[in-house]
Amino acid sequence: MTDTANLGLPCIEGSQAQKHITHNEALRLLDTLVQLAVLDRDLTAPPGTPSDGQRWIVKTGATSGWAGHVDEIAAWQDGMWQFSMPQTGWLAYVVDEGALLAWNGSGWTDAIAALTSLNNMTLVGLGTMADGTNPFSAKLNNTLFVAKTVAEGGDGHLRYKLSKECAAKTLSLLLQDNYSGRAEIGLTGDDDLHIKVSADGATWRDAIKIDRGTGRPSFPCGGVREMLTADRIYYVRADGSDGNNGRINSSGGAFLTLQKAYDVVASTLDLGGFTVTVQVGAGTYAGGLSVAQPWTGGGAVIFCGDVTTPGNVVVSTSTSATPGVSVTAVLPGKLTVTGFKFATSGAGSDAVAHSGCGTLEIGAADFGACTRFHVLALGAAAQVRLTAAYTISGGASAHLLANAGGYLSFNSAVTVIGTPAFSSAFAYATRLALIEVAGGSFAGSATGKRYAADLNGVVLSSGLTFPGDLAGTTATGGQWA
Fold first, then answer.
1. Three-state SS for 475?
2. 35 has a pLDDT exceeding 90
3. Backbone phi and psi for residue 151, each to the nearest 5 degrees, phi listed first
4. Which residues contact 434 (CB under 8 A, 6 or more apart)?
5. Could you give the CA distance from residue 71 to residue 92 in angstroms, rounded to a whole number?
6. Residue 219 pLDDT > 90, yes or no?
7. 121 exposed, middle or buried (CB, 10 Å; 0-12, 13-18, 19+)?
8. Per-residue model confidence as pLDDT tens digits over 94-108
9. Per-residue model confidence as pLDDT tens digits over 279-313
10. Which of 25, 164, 334, 452 is a Cys-bridge partner for 169, taking CB atoms 3.0 to 4.6 Å apart?
11. In Å, how far are 60, 89, 314, 451 from 461, measured between CA atoms?
């Protein structure tokens, strides 16, 4: 009698007697092996009271009626055991474990673990239902991705690779609160990296944007210093407003005060080595400028009025001891003030006073009447350099004063208008300070001493005669040369 190749079902031979016996035997085998579900795979001896049709996988070490049938399917049929030797690829569901097993030719293994690839699946739902909008869906509390090690045939690295169709599309990680967006990280509408937040899932704000070309971050909503990627200009106008952003040269765009412009630079920018210019329009600015906080990122800051006619842009203060320009901070780069007329009427007020650290450069200017000094360099770390042609149209206690180790450098063509008076001296160096003339010239006249040097102060004139109608004086170690 021959059997079928795969299930070993007995075939009815030609002219066979009692064909029903062979036929019924084949049906019993089909009943055993089709939709195969075994009760257990951990028994080595037959159960005491099996029910007809129940099946088991015989465990290694089998005894009694199962001896010699390890790994076979043992089925109780018609009061006796029927055994079937598995063939490669057979599947069996183990009821007590809820496991699906596969015969690999030498043993029963986890059928799911045996799968090495699943391709072109249209929907995958893990713990939840997938749909057309979310073809891969998972409901779980934790996930773990681990790099395949070198020992396992990998390279030890782990990268998540996501790709969009083109720059105009979006590729992002969307973080939601009860399915309403609250944060988004990715390439949203371009190839720059955006980090966005939302309070309601409808209105989104770019918190951080990283430029794809330079790698520089920017902060569109403010709150963190903006890193400059190029030189920048702010505008100040007499008809402006400190509620503007200062970026447009109009009444609706420019700042109203010099102080607001500097505060924006010092408090919100990282210059990154670039230059910020504050362009100041015609008019009179009563508040002056106080540089009490350093800016960030080096570079340079320039306050520029009208370099052709400085008298068109007037810095005028009337409060006691309030300079037109006051520098008390450590300057991280050069500060330049050019194109202004200075006039102070408050008691003890200077036109320009530097008592901080670093270099202040004065360009084109018109020094009007001041109650104290036109230009003051105070302290060993303070350096003031006058580098461009300017005008003196009013008197002061001194035009140039270097004090307490301060350094003042002069290299300008000066025009003196009228006959301003300088009650202390035109140029005064005291207490180890230095006034150094690198060149320049004077046109016009003034009253008062031409210079004074005392307490080891030094004035190096390079042969230039300062304005005044009285000879200069030296005292207590002061030097003139």
1. strand
2. no
3. -65, -25
4. 402, 406, 407, 408, 457, 458, 459, 460
5. 12
6. no
7. exposed
8. 999 999 999 999 999
9. 999 999 999 999 999 999 999 999 999 999 999 99
10. 164
11. 111, 105, 30, 10
What tokens appear for 474 in the block? 């030296």
Of 351, 258, 346, 348, which is closest to residue 305 (Cα–Cα)? 258
For 220: left if phi > 0, alpha if psi spans -120 to 50, otherwise beta; the answer is alpha
**Tokens found for residue 326:** 């006051």
Question: What single letter denotes the amino acid at residue 129?
Answer: M
Enumerate residues 6+ apart whose C-beta is below 8 A from 55.
Answer: 32, 36, 37, 38, 39, 73, 74, 75, 76
CA distances from 272 to 228, 230, 453 (A): 6, 9, 41
The residue to which tokens 């035997």 are assigned: 25
Those residues whose C-beta lies under 8 Å from the C-beta of residue 243, and which sit 6 or more positions away, are none
Question: What's 456's DSSP letter?
Answer: T
> What Rg, from alpha-carbon coordinates, does the chain have?
46
Residue 331 tokens read as 């300057």
CA distances from 429 to 7, 289, 414 (A): 114, 25, 19
Residues 6 or more apart whose CB falls under 8 angstroms from that of 346 comprise 317, 318, 319, 320, 321, 322, 371
Predicted confidence (pLDDT) at residue 145 exceeds the cutoff of 80: yes
350 SS3 class: coil
